[in-house]
Amino acid sequence: MNTLAGIHHVAVICSDYPVSKHFYTHILGLTVLDENYREARQSYKCDLRLPDGTQLELFSFPGAPQRPSRPEAQGLRHLAFRVADLDEAIAHLADHGVSCEPVRVDEYTSKRFTFFADPDGLPLELYEA
Q: Which UniProt keywords apply (predicted)?
């Protein structure tokens, strides 16, 4: 298939919508494109945009089951964000009470990266590119 042009969006289901919306908008700096409450599903859907145009959809579903992530479960492993300055990004997160794992170096690309978690424990990565 030669028609894939990039990733349009990633969808995340959160347990506490206001907390996760604050995290992704105020701490990570994503921009709200659209936000809707869907009465039939008793669910919010918030479309967020990264600077490169990639989108993250934030959902709230009442009673959604937790997803195991550690030890590494099958399925989506983590979501990685590209950053220009890893140290600056880590400092920004620390200023907001978000801790990161020790910085590692990709053995194949020699690029630096670290992991942190969203309010639901979803593993997120910062990758210096």
A: Metal-binding
